[in-house]
Each structure stands twice: as C-alpha cells, then as structure tokens.
C-alpha cells in the first residue's frame, strides 16, 4: 500500500470517527438500535453543501447540519418514546423519510462543492487535513468523555443499562433518550458535513451502509481494545475506525486478492464476523484449558 493510500485511509477513518462515536452513543450507551444514521449522515452532507453553494459561511453551515441531524435523531426518539413504536422500526421510518428530505434539501441527487469555500480553507495552510480532523475528533472525544462522566451522562448510561431501575430512581429516562439520540445523530450529520467538504460533493446515496460501517468500527474497536471505562471505550472506537479503514485499504490494494471497490461491503461483513468470532474462540480455548 502506497503512502498516499495510507494517508487517505487515515483521513477517511478520522472522518468516520465522528459517526462511530455517534453510533457508540446510541448502540452502546443507550442500547438503542438506531438506523437513522443512514439518513442523518447524508443529511449533514446535503445541508452543508446546499448552504455553502448559497453563500453561507462553512462554519455556520456545519453547525446547521449538526442541528438538522439532531432533529432527525429526535424524530426517531419521539416515535419510540411518545408513540411506543419499536426502536428499530422507528429508526427505519425516519431513515426512509430522510431520503426524500435529503433530495428536497439538495434539489437534485448530487451537489458538487468544487471551487467552493470550506471550513478547511484557512486551516489547511497551517496543518494537513488529517491533522485538523485528528484534533477535532480528539476534542469531540474529550467532550463526550466529560459528558458521560457527568451526572447527566451517568443517568443516561443508567438508562441504557436498566431503564426500569433508572426510572425507579427518579431519572427521566425518556428525556435522556431524546437527548442521547439527538447527540448521536448530530455527530453522524457532522461526519457527513465534513465528508462532503473534504471530498467536494454531497450525494443522496452517501448514507447507504453507513450504520454497518459505524457498527463495524465499534465492534472491531471493542474486540481489539476491550475496556471497562468510558475514556478507553471511546478511544477504542476511534482506533477501531482507523484500523477498519486501513484493513479495507490494504484489502482493496492487495492485487493477489483481486478485490474491487464494489467488494467493500463484503470485506466489511468479513471484518465484523471476525471481530465477533475471534474473541469468543479465544475464550472457548481458555475454558477448555
């Protein structure tokens, strides 16, 4: 694998790191099977691309994209909490609706950002894009760590672990689910907004398989770097995202394997299966001893 391919994989891994942290909040902290990210990721890209092409400041456009993603997460949470729709079904309904909303926002399936300003324009002269993303992702990780160890964060974690017990202790579990889902999808939309600005386009099909990628990185990180603390768990998620992208890049660049870009989902499925099976096989071997 060439240096260019290596740096490209690192850059993509850092871009998707925000998404992976969002998936970690919904799937691991809240125990909420959320497929909304398949719609909120391209929603962030659609909003930021549309606003930038209309002359809006890229920083403002990115914040608006995060707000749009948070609203998408709130819709899923409201369907689940207020209307008692199954979590998975609620997220599927929102995801389906977001496809049409994304088309409405962009007005067409694809919006190019060539020769348009991005939030990297001023910073790129000082640091490479991957370094900027690394700093931003690191600050986001620290913010999530601080939140999850605060009183509200501990209450949210209790809600995910045992909602009945948490409710009996006077915790407003429904409100925390709303907050957690908003945060999760805001991070997914942020990931999509940054992806669009780095790659120079937004497409309505960007979100296909996004939740699978997010879950793959979370599972891979937890399998390689098991942890009992929040700080190490979020770090494991980020490292899992980087390792996942490096493995994908190596697999697609290995000529003897004969893999192509269309085999990405196949490689992803194999990585997830290995991440799930290998730890169990190791435990089984220890048990037999």
Automatic annotation (TrEMBL):
Keywords: Cell membrane, Membrane, Transmembrane, Transmembrane helix
Name the record gives this protein: ABC transporter permease
Protein source organism: Adonisia turfae CCMR0081
PANTHER family, per the entry: ABC TRANSPORTER PERMEASE PROTEIN YPHD-RELATED-RELATED, BRANCHED-CHAIN AMINO ACID TRANSPORT SYSTEM, PERMEASE PROTEIN
Membrane topology: Multi-pass membrane protein
Entry annotated with the keyword Membrane: yes
Transmembrane segments: 6-27, 59-79, 86-107, 127-155, 176-198, 204-225, 232-252, 264-285
UniProt GO molecular function: transmembrane transporter activity
Compartment(s): Cell membrane
Gene Ontology cellular-component terms listed: plasma membrane
């Amino acid at each position: 694998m060439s240096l260019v391919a290596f740096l490209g994989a690192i850059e993509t891994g850092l871009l998707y790191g925000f998404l992976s942290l969002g998936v970690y909040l919904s799937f691991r902290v809240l125990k909420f099977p959320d497929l909304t990210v398949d719609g909120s990721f391209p929603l962030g890209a659609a909003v930021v691309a549309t606003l930038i092409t209309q002359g809006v400041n890229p920083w403002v456009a990115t914040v608006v994209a995060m707000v749009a993603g948070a609203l998408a997460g709130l819709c899923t949470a409201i369907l689940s909490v207020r209307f008692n729709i199954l979590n998975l079904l609620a997220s599927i309904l929102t995801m389906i609706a977001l496809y049409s909303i994304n088309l409405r926002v962009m007005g067409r399936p694809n919006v190019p950002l060539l020769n348009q300003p991005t939030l990297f324009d001023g910073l790129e002269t000082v640091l490479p894009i991957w370094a900027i993303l690394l700093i931003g992702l690191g600050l986001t990780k620290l913010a999530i760590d601080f939140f999850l160890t605060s009183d509200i964060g501990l209450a949210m974690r209790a809600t995910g672990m045992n909602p009945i017990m948490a409710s009996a202790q006077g915790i407003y579990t429904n409100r925390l689910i709303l907050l957690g889902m908003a945060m999760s999808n805001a991070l997914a939309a942020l990931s999509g907004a940054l992806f669009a600005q780095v790659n120079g386009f937004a497409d309505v099909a960007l979100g296909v398989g996004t939740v699978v990628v997010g879950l793959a990185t979370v599972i891979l990180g937890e399998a390689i770097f098991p942890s009992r603390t929040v700080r190490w768990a979020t770090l494991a998620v980020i490292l899992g995202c980087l390792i996942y992208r490096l493995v994908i890049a190596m697999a697609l660049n290995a000529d003897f394997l004969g893999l192509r870009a269309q085999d990405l989902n196949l490689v992803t499925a194999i990585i997830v299966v290995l991440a799930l099976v290998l730890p169990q096989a190791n435990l089984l071997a220890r048990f037999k001893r």
